[in-house]
């Protein structure tokens, strides 16, 4: 019941391939307690934009840890 998932998006601007965005998401879900269906999920999301709007950083990193219960 453990899960590893990677997703990568590359989004170039159609009329200017030098202007693009990248979004990488990685998830790891680990079973903590079998009979309770309790998991811990860790995720990392990295976003990059070569030409963001003014006053916006070119990259962003989000790290999350979640406790998941399934029924």
What would you say this structure looks like, in words?
The chain has 71 residues and is mostly beta strands. It is 0% helix and 73% strand. The protein has strands spanning 3-13, 16-33, 38-49, 59-69. A 4-stranded antiparallel beta sheet has the order 1-2-3-4, with no helix packed on it. It is elongated. 0% of the residues are buried.
Strand order of the largest sheet: 1-2-3-4
Coarse morphology: elongated
Q: From the helix content, strand content and strand pairing, which structural class follows?
A: mainly beta
- The fraction of residues assigned to DSSP E strands is over 45%
In short:
This protein is mainly beta.
Descriptive key words:
71 residues; mainly beta; four-stranded antiparallel sheet; 4 strands
SSE topology:
Layout: E1 3-13, E2 16-33, E3 38-49, E4 59-69
Antiparallel strand pairs: 1-2, 2-3, 3-4
